[in-house]
Amino acid sequence: MKRHKSLALLSSDHHHGLNIAKMLSTREGINSIGTEDACKKLADFFNNELVNHFSEEETFLVPPLKDNELIKRMCEEHNKLRGIFASLGSVDNLKNTLLTFGNLLEKHIRFEERELFPMIESTLPESTLIRIGNSIKLRKRAI
Hints:
This protein has helices at about 10-25, 25-35, 35-60, 60-65, 70-85, 95-125, 125-140. The chain is mainly alpha-helical. Helix 1 runs antiparallel to helix 6 (about 95-125). The longest helix has 30 residues, at about 95-125.
């Protein structure tokens, strides 16, 4: 799907996220590398990529659309994913928690690509989209 250039960097982030999600969303995927390594991969991905990605979306997409239901859903799902990740150290069934995280991450990314981003592209004026895109580029360069 052709993405507006302002959202292209966020959309590009989703590619790696889908790879992680696919690995975590099946027992076979987790078993193929082991639960401990799956946790390490998730921790690396979460801390080095997902935290920044969530921050960029919340910083630049929420203000112009704060009352929009899809934006509210995005933030709710971000918070669910943060909560699941935070619980990894204290859960009894780690594999099930990884599966839950993987499945939610995949659904979340697909929601953003299929519903949220198209809505943003059709709702916001070009000048706002350009400003958002420039802000995301600056943020990514600074990281």
